[in-house]
Structure formats: structure tokens, C-alpha cells
Write a structure and sequence with these properties.
Layout: H1 4-12, H2 22-25, E1 26-33, E2 38-40, H3 42-55, E3 57-68, E4 72-83, E5 86-99, E6 102-109, H4 112-115, H5 121-134
Parallel strand pairs: 1-6
Antiparallel strand pairs: 1-2, 3-4, 4-5, 5-6
Length: 136
């Protein structure tokens, strides 16, 4: 049986050490998709988190809302981190599907334009002019 409280605690306290507990939460061939990645592999999910800890300062997740049914969960979250001492926050959501108490489907939804591109000065201008052309 899935345990959302344990999953929430694990994510909100994720560290390079606690990452070793990923087997508790994900099946071996878990599907993962976000704006940059798509694959079937718990080891690759673990690799994304390892990379996150290597590249970012103080990364952390905060769960905001959680909607749950028997076979699926939907979570809204904030991902906070520092780059050269400056804080960034990405607002997003995740759709999870469960099998025998573990996640076999993990799909992240977040807006790369708003959450990343608009925070980089040169790209903000470029992306902003592109958005204006598309707006009604």
C-alpha cells in the first residue's frame, strides 16, 4: 500500500544520503518525464537527483497540495534552490501512478519559459518578445 506521508517526508528531506531509499518509492522500470527528460529507469531518476545535488546549492522540495485516488496522485510543489547565492523557485506539479505501493509513472509539469527562461536576463528579453508576438 502506498504511503504518501512517507513520500512527502522523503521528498521534503531529500539529500544525497536519503536518495539511497529511492527503491522504497519507485519501481525499477519507473517511467519519468519532465520538460527535459523522458525514460523508463529508477536508476536514471536517481541520477537526475544526484546531478541536482552536484549542480545546485541547497535544493529542496515543498509539497503544496496533494490530490489522491486509489491508483494515482497529483501533487503541486515548489522546488527551491540557490545558484551563486541567489534563490530560485520553480512552481510545478507531478502526476504519479502507483503499483503495489510504489510509483511506476512520474510526470512533472512546469513551465520552462516562465520558471527558467524569464529569470535569465538575455533569454527573458528574447522569450518576452516571442510571447508578445503570440499573445492576442
Amino acid at each position: 500500500m502506498k504511503d504518501l506521508d512517507k513520500l512527502k517526508y522523503w521528498y521534503e528531506n531529500l539529500s544525497p544520503e536519503s536518495l539511497e531509499q529511492i527503491d522504497t518509492f519507485y519501481t525499477e522500470q519507473s517511467f519519468f518525464k519532465d520538460p527535459f527528460n523522458e525514460f523508463y529507469s529508477r536508476d536514471k531518476i536517481k541520477g537526475i537527483f544526484k546531478d541536482m545535488f552536484n549542480k545546485l546549492e541547497s535544493p529542496s522540495f515543498v509539497f503544496i497540495d496533494l490530490i489522491d485516488s486509489n491508483e494515482a496522485s497529483f501533487i503541486t510543489w515548489d522546488f527551491k534552490f540557490l545558484v551563486k547565492g541567489k534563490e530560485f523557485v520553480i512552481h510545478g506539479s507531478t502526476h504519479l501512478k502507483w503499483e503495489s505501493g510504489r510509483i511506476y509513472y512520474h510526470r512533472d509539469y512546469w513551465d520552462v519559459g516562465e520558471e527558467v527562461l524569464l529569470k535569465i536576463p538575455f533569454l527573458r528579453r528574447l522569450y518576452g518578445s516571442f510571447r508578445k508576438k503570440l499573445a492576442h
